[in-house]
Amino acid sequence: MDLRFEERQEKLRETMRKFVEQEIPREYARELDEKDEFPHHLIRKLVDYDLARINIPREYGGHGGDILDLMIIFEEIAKRFPTLCWSFGNILLYGNEIIGVNGNTEQKEKYLPRLAKGEIKFSFGLTEPDAGSDAASIRTRAVFEDGHYVINGNKMFITGAGVTEYTITFARTAESKYNGITSFIVDTSLEGYSAKQLEKIGHRGSNTCEVTYENVRVTPGDILGGQEGLNKGWWQEMKLLNQERLVLSSCALGIAQAAFDDALVYARAKLGRTQDKGVAQMIQHQLADMASSVEAIRYLIYAAAWKETKGMQPVMETSISKYFSAETAKKVVTQGLDILGADAALMEHDMQRYLRDIMIYSIGGGTSEIQKNIVAKTLNL
Amino acid sequence: MDFAFSEEQGFIRDTIQKFIARECDREVVKKLDEDGQYPEKLFQTIAQMGFCGLTVPQEYGGGGLDSLGAAMVTEELAAISPVLAGAFCATTFSGGLVISSLGSTDQKEALLPEIVQGGLCVTFGVEEPDSRYGSVLVQTAAAKSGEGFLLEGSKSFVRCADRADYIIVLADTDGDADSGDTLTLFLVDMKSPGVKVEPMDKVGFHSSSLCRVVFEKVLVPARSILGGEEMFKKGWSQLENVMAVRHLEVAALAVGLSQGAYDYAAGYAKEREQFGQPISRFGAVRTLLSEMAIGIQTGRDLLYRACWRADSLKGFLKEALMARIVASRVAQRSAMDCMQVLGGYGYANEYDAQRYLRDSMVLFEGKISSDDLMGSLSALLGLDGASR
Fold first, then answer.
1. Are B228 and B104 in contact (CB under 8 A)?
2. How far is A219 from chain B, CA to nearest CA, in Å?
3. A-chain residues within 8 Å CB-CB of B328?
4. Which among A279, A337, A372 has the least Cβ separation from residue B361?
5. What is the DSSP letter of B94?
6. Complete DSSP assignment for B148-188
7. Are A258 and A79 in contact (CB under 8 A)?
8. pLDDT in tens, A263-295
9. Is A61 left (phi over 0), alpha (psi -120 to 50) or beta?
10. 3-state secondary structure (DSSP) of residue A379
């Protein structure tokens, strides 16, 4: 047994810490949150640090990194500005991973080198206004006509849909609930595609959109994985679920860590003023409790990810990670609110943003309830 | 033992519910929040309905002491608009209830009739930038100067200071304070020269303010001491009542906010279908909503008990504090779980779940964190080693 990260991974973490300190000062993160604008500038910087190719296979010019690398990157960014995790996810997760895992050779050759250079980004269009947790009930349709697929329908909560060059669009191509879904690589400049940014409480700047497809025409060559991908969309997505859930877990960890770090500084100042030793212990124990939670999240999610890199298919462990990290991080942040008291509600402190940001992790990428369904199913209940 | 409400209390709840249905729907409140606009007109309507006199004795034109009735109104308003409820609290609790119980005859005669008319907003200035409630550290000083005092210092987390007519200020009135009671509560006119108000930027309660109030050589006449001149240096004993009233306010706001979040989530869950059925049928959602309902009822019962003690002229600090602690926790949990029930829609500004969550964070106002509250409660229970 050895729970240490490899030297290469430690170096990556070091790089990320430097990146965050240099490129995202606290004040800048607050400003971006307030402005609610997509962080193009920071994405550019990440590309300049040569991080966009980290999980592209070596044969396509990448570094061949794995899920642990992604989690290290996301955890460190999330400590300061989790919106950027999602935006970078428009390259690493929805671009590199989707094309790398499900694309055919032609698609890999076409998109991966451009993703590596930050020239293009991808969004992920699955959720619909009436298909959330019940994702396979999507109604967006792609009908084959004169050599083209014509897509019509609506998507909801699609992150980056208004700023990405491509969007992976899940559409119904046959009636079967799970075997009638095809994913298409849709160029967002095509006629009939439109995305409207939603205003929301947290992860501001992520450009999460409501998307409309009105007779958007794509070719059979745009099916993810080529012709063979027809009606295989659901199963292609399944292959990526572990990746997405683990990455989201690392974001939740980063936010929990940040909330703990801020609470620690605040608590120390408070302890300096507190004369009642009993009250001092209340504060100390609150922090001890938070530290325990953060530690538990950290080892749980990295252990699941390690299993993933070893090809052990940790489906249950991944769902447990996603569920536990999201719910526990929420708890840690509320304890941070308790420590700061009224100060927590002020914009001059980041604790209120940690709460606004953390709330989505028990919802997006499969709610806590869905994760528990998966765990229960794995337990043959 | 009797848990029944009086006929009048039933009427109060009924009337306020009808008012909300008629004039204060979700769209109105949403617009006010987005524009950061104070609900002046809505508040005036409530005042015209006579609810501002609920905590004022009949001889001053009020309805007699009914803080339970006032808590009910607060609750109903907070379910739809915590900001509007806060405005109501500023008049009835901070104003009516405090001045009725602690004011001098002159102060009562001058201010209570105005409160009944809804024309007076009163706020508290207790906490300071560097102080905490547990360890009283009052740096705001009032030095004797001719017939009155010169007030110097600052207060933070003062609700609605930009529209308040009066602020109840806790000040140190002893230059070399090392023994005995040195604190005095002043009822300061906000229009006095030297009073400066700076709004604090906060995450919720967007249509009302939370401020820092700075006093720069503010001349305060001796008759402005809360309760009159004989209450000079009696601020510490009065503070118990002031704090108890503040706890009641927060508890009532929190219970109302929680109920609003519950109603919103339950309504959504019955409408929203996934996997071919309303999500309210799923065990997960039923658990979330049932836990919310239990929490809300617990907070409400504690609140009503504290109000009942206040209305029976019994001490109610401990009960109000317990109600506040429970109700604040429930409000946070309810707002969070409301968002969970709404899923992605809960995160979008188009829906109200995010507003409940943002507002719930501001309920902590008063610079009071959980260790402060528990520190105070444990002291009231005699657990701090000090003799009481």
1. yes
2. 32
3. none
4. A337
5. I
6. EEEEEEEEEEEETTTT-SEEEEEEE--TT--SS--EEEEEE
7. yes
8. 999 999 999 888 889 999 999 999 999 999 999
9. left
10. coil
Q: Kindly indicate the confidence band of residue B29, based on its pLDDT and cuts at 50, 70 and 90.
A: very high
Q: What is the pLDDT of residue B126?
A: 86
Paired with A79 in beta bridges are none
Chain B interface includes A283 (CB < 8 A): yes
Residue B224 confidence class, pLDDT cut points 50, 70, 90:
very high
Hey, what amino acid is at A307? K
Residue of B nearest to A360 (CA): B347
In our burial notation (b when 16+ CB lie closer than 10 A, e otherwise), range B150-177 reads bbbbbbbbbbbbbbbbbbbbbbbbbeee
Catalytic, out of A244, A308, A317, A327: A244
What values do phi and psi take at A168, rounded to 5? -80, 115
DSSP symbols for A90-101: HHIIIIIIHHHH
Which amino acid is located at A45 in the chain? K
The interface residues of chain A toward chain B in range 286-325, judged by CB-CB distance below 8 A, are 286
**C-beta separation of B89 from B249 below 8 A:** yes
Q: Do residues A224 and A239 make contact, with C-beta atoms less than 8 angstroms apart? A: no
Residue A113 token pair: 């080198």
Q: Which CATH architecture has domain B237-380?
A: Up-down Bundle (1.20)
Q: What is the DSSP letter of B238?
A: H
The yes-or-no answer on residue A244 being catalytic is yes
Amino acid at residue number B295? G
**Residue among A30, A36, A332, A346 with most chain B CBs within 10 A, to mutate:** A346
pLDDT at residue A93 is higher than 90: yes
Tokens encoding B11? 């009427």
Give the CATH architecture of domain B124-233.
Beta Barrel (2.40)
Query: Side chain identity at A356, as an amino acid letter?
Result: R
Beta bridge partners of B171: B184
Q: What is the pLDDT of residues A109-154, one digit of tens each?
A: 999 999 999 999 999 999 999 999 999 999 999 999 999 999 999 9
Write the CATH number for A317.
Answer: 1.20.140.10
Minimal Cα–Cα distance from B255 to chain A, Å?
Answer: 18
Q: Give A196's contacts in chain B (Cβ within 8 Å).
A: none
Q: Answer whether residue B175 shows pLDDT above 80.
A: no
Q: Model ipTM?
A: 0.95
B304 CA: distance to closest CA in chain A (Å):
25
- A 100-139 residues with CB < 8 A to B: 127, 130-134, 137
Task: Evaluate whether the domain defined by B7-121 bears CATH number 1.10.540.10.
Answer: yes
Contacts (Cβ under 8 Å, ≥6 apart) of A252 = A78, A297, A325, A326, A328, A329, A358, A361
Q: What is the mean pLDDT of residues B150-164?
A: 93
Report yes or no: B158 and B213 within 8 Å, Cβ to Cβ.
yes
The residue with tokens 């809804």 is B118
In a domain, A269, yes or no: yes
C-alpha to C-alpha distances, B198 to B155, B167, B209, B210, nearest whole angstrom: 10, 14, 9, 9
Quote the tokens at residue B129. Answer: 């930038």
Domain housing A337: 235-378
Domain endpoint, select from A120, A151, A176: A120
Last residue of a domain, one of A173, A196, A231: A231
pLDDT tens by residue, B83-122: 999 999 999 999 999 999 999 999 999 999 999 998 899 9
Helix (H, G, I), strand (E, B) or coil at A149: strand
